[in-house]
Specification:
α3 runs parallel beside α12 and α5 (139-161) runs antiparallel to α6. Residues 1-19 and 461-484 have low confidence and may be disordered. The two termini are 15 Å apart. This protein has one domain (13-459): Cytochrome C Oxidase, Chain A (Up-down Bundle), CATH 1.20.210. Helices cover 70% and strands 1% of the residues. The chain has a two-stranded antiparallel ribbon. The longest helix is centred in the middle third of the chain and has 36 residues, at 205-240. A hairpin with a 6-residue loop joins β1 and β2. It has helices at residues 13-18, 21-51, 62-93, 99-120, 139-161, 173-199, 205-240, 247-258, 264-270, 275-306, 316-337, 344-371, 381-407, 424-455; strands spanning 126-128, 135-137. By secondary structure, the chain is mostly helical.
């Protein structure tokens, strides 16, 4: 296929009207991901306002921000990432996905999200800002967390055991391999959580949950990176018409990324107070993620460079890929500068998670036409590009502002009047952070508005899906036609 040839993926009307299990589950998981992002975005705006030095005096109860931060992080880092990746995996598996077990997995996960929200407002609930998976110390919240992870693990295991679809909606094999690697890493992470919960001795809440979620939390980062790389490959394929990496190379990279994470499960079973449990998780994060990412990024850059004269730089995929890659590299750089517990830490991980989020957002503009009927209104490529630039740019400024304040020694996990901002550098850093945060939230709300409008079409009678294009719609419009 020539790179200049549009990719057209058409699905028979009868198959879409039947509503295959894969497409139904893809909609469900993506709807759950969008719902979590709506709530997380609203909470993030509250957190940004609470960080601003000239408004901090309005908020004298730090526990309010800590509760908001717990729910925000769990929705934006855990639920959004896992549900978004599983939506694409469900689409990749299609009608081969077993309907009843898949529905049971989703039901458990959705019940879990409700438990997280209800547990957050229970009287006397104490927020615990543990790394990776912060919690609210209440049985209802933990019941929700268990239901969520159980549902995700069940769906991931189903996905690993189900062969990929081979019809017109099939994703390229490299993308499927990366998404399966993300599913495997999520299963490893969840089992590591369970093992750590069993072996961690009684301790004060912050120390206890730090031990429980430390090992599995590091594995979740590998899962997120695997999903991001899979989405990069998907976007490159949709943009250029050719794959950047073959499935064999992708599988080798994913094995290098995910397979070493298996060592954390026996270490957690041996006991989370052993030094090897802590040090090995850190070493794996430090030495497995960035080499695999750089190799994949170099291959993608080489692929795009060779076809630069044939590509339209105004395509929204260009903005999404470039923004996600830039945030990834910025996250690596800021991570290398960390020397203590300052706001440089959240500066680093907000760039890292922003890269994954931007990849998911960009791919969502291809996902929605694949699961929506033809009557839905297409999204302007110009509007999609603007939204991605807003979010990506805002997230980069947000991370840099945090990092600037951290360079002057501002402590992390402090809000409102407890920040004790002392220097001009801290004021400047937090002000830059606030500006970037507002822009990023605006970009996030822009994305949600577009996606929710598209999701409204899911209730209509199923017909062949429309495409993201400037071209007029027709009754027999191709599914996900790529405009270049």
């Amino acid at each position: 296929m020539s790179p200049a040839t549009p990719i057209t993926l058409s699905v028979p009307t009868t198959s879409r009207a039947a509503g295959c299990a894969g497409e139904t589950e893809a909609r469900r998981w993506f709807g759950l991901a969008l719902g979590s992002l709506v709530l997380a975005g609203l909470l993030s705006l509250t957190l940004v306002i609470g960080r601003l030095p000239f408004l901090g005096w309005l908020f004298t109860d730090p526990l309010f921000f800590r509760r908001a931060l717990v729910v925000h992080v769990d929705l934006a880092i855990v639920v959004w990432f896992q549900a978004g990746a599983l939506a694409f995996l469900a689409l990749a598996l299609g009608p081969r996905l077993p309907r009843l077990p898949a529905a049971a997995a989703f039901g458990l996960a959705a019940t879990g999200v409700i438990g997280l929200l209800v547990g957050a407002v229970m009287p006397g609930a104490e927020p615990v800002l543990s790394n990776y998976v912060p919690v609210i110390d209440h049985p209802v919240f933990f019941l929700g967390l268990v239901c969520w992870f159980t549902g995700v693990a069940l769906f991931c295991l189903l996905a690993l055991a189900t062969p990929a679809r081979t019809d017109a909606q099939a994703l390229n094999p490299g993308t499927v391999a990366a998404l399966r690697a993300a599913a495997a890493a999520n299963v490893i992470a969840i089992f590591t959580f369970a093992a750590a919960w069993r072996t961690t001795p009684d301790a004060p809440a912050i120390a206890y949950y730090e031990l429980v979620f430390w090992g599995g939390g590091h594995v979740l980062q590998a899962a997120n990176v695997a999903a991001m790389l899979g989405l990069w490959l998907h976007l490159v394929h949709r943009w250029t018409g050719q794959v950047a990496l073959g499935p064999g190379v992708v599988t080798a990279l994913m094995l290098a990324l995910v397979l070493p994470e298996l060592v954390l499960l026996p270490l957690a079973l041996e006991g989370t107070t052993h030094s090897a449990y802590f040090s090995m998780a850190t070493l794996l994060m430090r030495w497995t993620i960035f080499p695999v990412t750089l190799v994949a990024l170099a291959a993608i850059a080489r692929h795009l460079w060779r076809r630069r004269s044939e590509l339209d730089g105004r395509d929204y995929r260009c903005a999404g890929l470039a923004g996600s890659a830039a945030l990834t590299m910025l996250g690596f750089l800021l991570g290398a500068l960390i020397r203590g517990s300052s706001t440089l830490v959240p500066g680093h991980y907000h760039c890292a998670i922003g890269a994954v989020t931007l990849a998911l957002m960009t791919a969502a503009y291809d996902f929605m036409p694949a699961v929506s009927p033809a009557g839905s209104a297409p999204t302007s490529t110009r509007r999609a590009r603007l939204q991605l630039l807003l979010f990506g740019g805002g997230q980069a400024v947000f991370g840099l502002g945090f990092s600037l304040a951290g360079a002057y020694g501002l402590g992390r996990k402090q809000y409102g009047s407890e920040q004790n901002v002392r220097s001009l550098g801290e004021y400047l850093g937090l002000s830059v952070m606030g500006l970037g945060g507002v822009v990023a939230v605006a970009g996030g709300l822009f994305f949600l508005a577009v996606m929710l409008r598209q999701a409204g079409a899911w209730r209509r009678a199923s017909r062949p899906a429309s495409s993201i294009s400037h071209e007029p719609k027709t009754q027999n419009a191709p599914l996900a036609k790529v405009a270049r």
